[in-house]
Design a protein that fits this description.
Length: 318
């Protein structure tokens, strides 16, 4: 039987109440105007990178097992006009195309809302988990979408640091290695930064295909739970972090033997925003080339009412 996450995290640091009893924005509150300007100061040459993956890729989309990729279809196109299904009175020959996407909001590059994951019947800041029924009454994506997630980002290229194209199933990354990697790259991690951790894992999906990616038992590589790592996020006042994996952490923690404990310790307890399923290879190649690993990070989730998350195409400006 797996351990109880509430017992494991009993003494873990928390941000509940830090920004008031009604707060639903969490650690993104750290991203004040000063932090935005600190991000702007990291811009030197204006090079831009987008971190989103394609939505509706012909080989499918990389998603958490049990979810499905986007289903994209045409509601109206030239064929509909040629078949006489539309007659736009007064359009003078003007025609149009319309399409629809049916997808999991967590099924592409995305931000988790703070009410996406909980334990012990409570969401971030103590909201009752029953308020998620029928749509998130509290801690939906809306406060984050209203605020935006903008600050100084720092790439930590763990795949390159290990001399690999990508990490394999179950490989774990500890805090010490994140710090060593920053050191080796010659970049200083500062309080309120947005760490972007590259494992190469999403590249495996596109380069070797879904079978290699999912394997026999899905067990993603990633940062792993430790008291040190959780304390570090708290002391450094980390508002958000991104990775190129589906869930931003080792699937089953070696330490707790439970599924995704950092979702409990960081998202639910500290209100840290998770930006998942990024594609980081182009950004990483450029950072390796010019030796500059910090940048302005801009994440704009959609204002979807009562939603558990939102697709996002983060923009990085160097
Ligand atoms: C789960 O909800 C399982 O993970 P994610 O945060 O990746 O959506």
């Amino acid at each position: 039987m797996s351990k109880d996450i509430a017992d494991i995290l009993e003494d873990a640091p928390s941000n509940w109440g830090r920004w008031g009893a009604d707060d639903e924005l969490g650690a993104v509150n750290y991203l004040t105007e000063e932090e935005v300007l600190r991000g702007v100061q990291a811009v030197e040459d204006g090079k831009t990178f987008t971190l989103g993956i394609p939505i509706g890729h012909p080989d499918g989309d990389p998603v958490w097992p049990g979810r499905s990729g986007a289903d994209h279809y045409m509601e109206v196109d030239k064929g509909h006009f040629d078949a006489g299904k539309f007659d736009l009175d007064g359009a003078g020959g003007l025609e149009y195309a319309d399409d629809v996407i049916y997808m999991f909001l967590q099924g592409t590059t995305q931000f988790d809302a703070l009410g996406h994951v909980w334990y012990d019947e409570q969401l971030y800041n103590g909201f009752d988990a029953t308020t998620t029924t029928g749509g998130l009454e509290h801690c939906s994506i809306e406060p984050m979408a209203d605020h935006g997630v903008v600050g100084r980002g720092v790439l930590l290229d763990i795949a390159r640091h290990r001399g690999k194209d990508w990490l394999v199933q179950g490989e774990r990354i500890e805090l010490e290695e994140l710090l060593e990697c920053a050191d080796e790259q010659g970049v200083e991690l500062q309080p309120r930064d947005i760490p972007i951790i590259r494992t190469g894992w999403i590249e495996l999906f596109y380069e070797e295909g879904p079978e290699a990616f999912y394997g026999e038992e899905f067990d993603e590589p990633g940062i792993t739970y430790s008291e040190n790592l959780v304390e570090w996020f708290h002391e450094m006042e980390i508002p958000a972090f991104g990775t190129d994996t589906i869930a931003n952490e080792q699937t089953v923690s070696d330490e707790t033997e439970t599924l995704l404990p950092l979702h409990g310790a960081l998202l639910r307890d500290q209100g840290v925003t998770f930006n998942e399923i990024n594609r980081l290879d182009e950004l990483a190649a450029d950072c390796a080339d010019d030796g500059k690993y910090d940048f302005l990070y801009v994440g704009a989730p959609l204002k979807i009412v009562h939603a558990t998350g939102s697709p996002v195409n983060p923009i990085v400006i160097k």
